[in-house]
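Researcher: Please translate sequence to structure tokens.
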Amino acid sequence: MSEHHHHAHRDRPALLGAAVLLTLGFAMVEAAAGWWSGSLALLGDAAHMVTDTAALGLAAFAAWIMRRPPSARHSYGLGRAEVVVALINGLLMLAIVIGIGWAAVERLHAPQPVAGLAVMGVAAVGLLVNALVARLLLRGEQSLNTRGALLHVLGDLFGSVAALASGTVIYFTGWTPIDPLLSLLICALILYSSLRLLRDTLHVIMEGVPPEIDLAEVGQALAGIRGVISVHDLHIWTLSSGVVALSAHVVVNDLSGWEEILGRLRALLHERYAIDHVTLQPEPCTHTLKPMRHTPQGTPV
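Model: Translation complete:
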């Protein structure tokens, strides 16, 4: 017997659309200012923001397509669109880190003059724009989709901080190596966040057990329900952010009492683990089976 509950995430395409317009508009201003001032920090941040525009556009598309209901072709709906977009965004971030890092190393070997005052002014405006975009995204649901988009925006925000610091140091001291050095520092921060996002995304793609759930604990809890002899072939995975699915075979004393047992099992999963997308297969107890509690792969113990 199975019970399927479809919960579609409701990311806000309107918020993501506004973020796209703000990001793209300022990226054009920042690119022109970076070229004029000779600042690698500004040029790198502008390139990052252009890529962010694509990332935010993908996030908005994923938020829209996830609203489509399940169909005969996609019985689970299109919630996994956010996972695909998060993977693309994570890979884009890695490409940005490599590109900016390479340019920063070259700039360290061949320093170039930088207009510190212009960098300070543009970076200060960029900091405000990126803070506004980040605030817009934080108002939405924190799914893998918005996490990927927010990661890009936070990278921009850190880039603006680095550019502001770089312009300040260059304006007051004339020490130009600070520009590529701060760019490398921001690359390291973005790399750490990107690898975490990729790890979480790949875990969902590989249908791993959600990190906040202990598979063995869930199995033991189910096996402890009155009327249940054992639980085996237990699987827990993530359909999309916040939508966790579970399937298991449940050995019971008496199949005639299955409806009551199922109600208790579903209540336990909902109240303790917030799992509502459940498929449970009842099996009668036979003399050939030894009493057992829980094994994920169904091996009696």
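Researcher: Any highlights?
Model: The longest strand covers residues 228-240.
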